[in-house]
Amino acid sequence: MAEHAVEGAVEEGAKLNIHPMAQFEITPLFGDGPIHWYTPTNVTLWLFIAIAAIVLLMVIATRGRNIVPGRGQSVAESIYSFVRSMIVDITGEEGLKYFPYIMTLFLLILFTNVLGLLPGSFTIMSHIAATGVLALLVFGAVTLIGFYKNGPKFLKIFWVSEAPMILRPILAVIEIISYFVRPVSHSIRLAGNMMAGHAVIKVFAGFAAVLAAGTPLGIGVIAPVGAIMAVLGLELLVVVIQAYVFTVLTCVYLNDALHPGH
Amino acid sequence: MENAITGDLAQMGAMIGAGLASIGMGGAAIGVGNVVSSFLSGALRNPAAAGGQTATMFIGIAFAEALGIFSFLIALLLMYAQ
Question: For the whole model, what pTM was predicted?
Answer without folding.
Answer: 0.83
